[in-house]
Amino acid sequence: MARIAGVDIPRNKQVWVSLQYIYGIGPTLAKKVLAETSIEPEIKVSDLTDAQVNTLREAVAKYEVEGELRKEINLNIKRLIEIGSRRGQRHRRSLPVRGQRSRTNARTKRGQRKTVAGRGQKRGTAKK
After folding, report:
1. Cβ–Cβ contacts within 10 Å for residue 67, how many?
2. What separation in angstroms does the CA of 78 have from each of 24, 66, 84, 95?
3. Which segments of the chain belong to CATH 4.10.910.10?
4. Pair 82, 22: CB distance under 8 Å
């Protein structure tokens, strides 16, 4: 496996696909990096020469990826929480940040449903 930016990228995939295994590189940036290095996107990683892998490493090193990017994102979230902005409060409470509804849905962010006692029966009806 070729190791770029501290990540082992898969050998059996095309270069533009396997570059996306690096955090912070999507399809657009992968193709942009390959255009800079003049490597064909459809070549398999196993067919790359050592020189081409080195040029890829240098090209990817210009961008903020992996640990640096994760660190910056976490610092931005902490800053929002510290200043007490609305987005920071939503992050603190583990609720959707970008205006989505949360009365229903938002299950991924809020976690599994918590059962509450007394909610299962219709109100106002007596037990028999």
Report:
1. 12
2. 20, 19, 10, 15
3. 67-110
4. no
Domain(s) labelled CATH 1.10.8.50 in the chain stretch across 2-63
Cα gap 87→121, rounded to integer Å:
37
Note the CATH number of domain 67-110. Answer: 4.10.910.10
pLDDT tens, residue by residue, 68-121: 999 999 999 999 999 999 999 999 998 999 999 888 888 888 888 888 887 666
- Using the structure block, give the residue that is written with the tokens 């399809």: 27
CATH topology of domain 2-63: Helicase, Ruva Protein; domain 3 (1.10.8)
Could you tell me the pTM of the whole model? 0.75
Token look-up 């912070």 returns 24
Amino acid sitting at position 65 = V
